[in-house]
Amino acid sequence: MTGTDGTAAGTLVLAGTPIGDIADAPPRLAAELAGADVIAAEDTRRLRRLTQGLDVQPTGRVVSYFEGNETARTPELVEALVGGARVLLVTDAGMPSVSDPGYRLVAAAVEKDIKVTAVPGPSAVLTALALSGLPVDRFCFEGFLPRKAGERLSRLREVGDERRTLVFFEAPHRLDDTLAAMAEVFGAERRAAVCRELTKTYEEVKRGPLGELAVWAAEGVRGEITVVVEGAPDVTESLDAEELVRRVQVREEAGERRKEAIAAVAADAGLPKREVFDAVVAAKNAARATP
Length: 291
Prior knowledge:
With 291 residues, this protein is an alpha/beta fold. It contains 11 helices and 10 strands. It has helices at residues 27-35, 44-53, 70-82, 103-111, 124-132, 149-158, 175-186, 210-217, 241-253, 258-269, 273-289, and strands at 11-15, 38-41, 61-64, 86-90, 115-119, 139-144, 165-170, 191-196, 204-209, 225-229. The strands form 2 sheets. Strands 3-2-4-1-5 form a 5-stranded parallel sheet, with helices on both faces. Strand 6 (139-144), helix 6 (149-158) and strand 7 (165-170) form a beta-alpha-beta unit. Helix 7 packs antiparallel against helix 8.
């Protein structure tokens, strides 16, 4: 593709940045920072610390590109790309567009048939997976959960039957509530790992059942957090319909709504929610038919 002035269109470069230790910076990162025509940074102050740490002096124009201005700034950056500029996109840590700004710009560049490439770099998702001690052959990334308790529970129930290992980001001040919600939906014995401050001085990986981790987190946890949770069990628990109904009733008597109780029992037993629902309906119909 050529730009509006007849010149060849530029290139969008997504650059992975260290998630903690600056020594983990990809070798190509310094060269891209030095040679880019435009650097779009999630936080220009962090960019300054990064370039100083790498002993690089950018020659291109630096602009901010974060969640608050992503929509408005994207057309400006696309215009620069169409005009032939090499635009480097960096976020605070890790890979742009993975729970960070970038998706809109990539989509807009692709729509204009502009070349998009990447400087691969550190990833909190993959690092946490590797350190978790949980299965990594199949996994799914869920990003940040909703902040509101009800919405958070709903999202967790959506993945309650997911057999792949689950990866989440979470803010430290919400970690205890999130782990408690996970224990409620997935079961307190489901294995998990809380990865904190990865590659930094105070790196910590806390492994254990969700119930125990929720108690641990209640004391307060600091730093950047990635949570890895074991997928739903492959082998379903051997429970007959009568026991499924009894477990739902126990939860209802404790104050849970029936829909929530069914979802929780299904998650604990590793069964489809429909199977538990059908057992409850059948029991209800049988009770009505009994004289």
